[in-house]
Amino acid sequence: MKVRRHAAPGDDTGIDLTPMLDVIFIMLIFFIVTTSFVREAGIEINRPAAETASKQEQNSILIAVSASGEVWMDGQKVDARALRGLIRKRRSEHPQAAVVVQADRDAKAGLMVQVMDQARLAGVRDVAVAAEQP
Length: 134
Hints:
A five-stranded mixed beta sheet has the order 3-2-1-4-5, with helices on one face. It has a domain at 61-129: Nucleotidyltransferase, domain 5. It has helices at residues 18-34, 83-93, 109-121, and strands at residues 61-65, 71-73, 76-78, 99-103, 127-129. The chain has 134 residues and is of the alpha/beta class.
């Protein structure tokens, strides 16, 4: 005859999950801290090369102009005439932010000038054109 031993009502037979939760929270904090919160313009473009290209600060408002004539801001396709309001909204969040126009090397100059003009009409004086170093 086999005798089975049952746990007394006061015995704790559960698994302690506290160490596992501690590790998960530490990993979560690590990933939050190490993630860079850079807003991208929304499309991949071929930047022209320039010898005098320099790196801009992180709090820039990025606007992309594609070779096909599309304008992108914050991952969304926008109308060039609506940029003034969108830039003002982003500028209210980050008052010192500059505007960086990421124009494709095959983009039309007229559209790029229109985008830069909308940025200046929105009150931004620091407008730059993105280029890569050769």
